[in-house]
Design brief:
Keywords: Cell cycle, Cell division, Cell membrane, Membrane, Transmembrane, Transmembrane helix. Its main location: membrane. By secondary structure, the chain is of the alpha/beta class. It is built from eight helices and twelve strands. It is elongated.
Length: 324
Amino acid sequence: MFIKRRTSRVQHRRQVIELQAKVVSPRIVWFSVLKSCRKMVRFVVILAFLGGTVWGVKYGIRRGLLENEEFRLQAIELTPNPAIDERRLVQVAGIDLNGSLFDCDVAVIESKLQALPEIAYAKVRREFPGTLIVDAAAREPRAWISSPSHGIPARDPQQGLVVNRSGFAFHCPPALLDKAAGLPVLQLGEGGEMPVAGKQVVHPEFDRLMRLYQVACTEIEGADQWIDTLRQSRTWSLELVSHDGTTASFGLGDHERQMGDLRSALEHARTQDQQIASIELIPERNIPVILRGEGTPRAILIDEPAPVATPDRRSRDLQNLLNR
């Protein structure tokens, strides 16, 4: 018996055709609508619950805190300072005196106070139940700024500018006008940026005059009330004018030595009951000095002076210059 072998395999693919029939009837549509309505109602209920919860929390906060008489703003404690008082604080910060302590935004009030050029520091905090504490410090005027080319007058309460030790410009607060009335004026020439309240003064002459002023305050006692005006009179020299009419010329450098010479000359003139009209301090020796206010010479009987030690050269030069 012979068996016939298969030499190849034949794969038969069956194609299955699936028929899906969708049946639409009024009853099926009705149930679909009911199902969608139930989902919608459930969503609305959840949304209403959340909205009611939020409203309840806000209502409770408003009734329990914001509208609570215990937390109403009852007092403002402001650190005494010459730059701002309680009335101006309320205006600048926009504080509602009839509102709650929670209405006072500490960060906003601090930013508004620190934006005032005359305020150097401001810190605000709330002390429950009803006190707002404001700690503020004013900038200390160091000198007046004058710039004729920029229309800035000297020592003007309205348009004038003062600077602190770091050169920050601001309008002098009314409470400090009496104290600042005798401060020196730094007179600036043309060039540089226009001095503006709330910014650092950027001017080449200002830096030179400020350095000379600082040296004067170090070398001469009461220089801040003795000096009237500081200006750059020439390209190579600075000029100091005092309240009593003394004019002193300085170079652009070597101020310590020159200011020491000025102090010595002033002290010597004071002992001789004389007044210096002008003095040129740039030379290291043979300093030119012009005196003024000398009275009529008088003859005075004096005893024979006792021998004294020979004075040093510097004292001798000053003596010769002041007595010529």
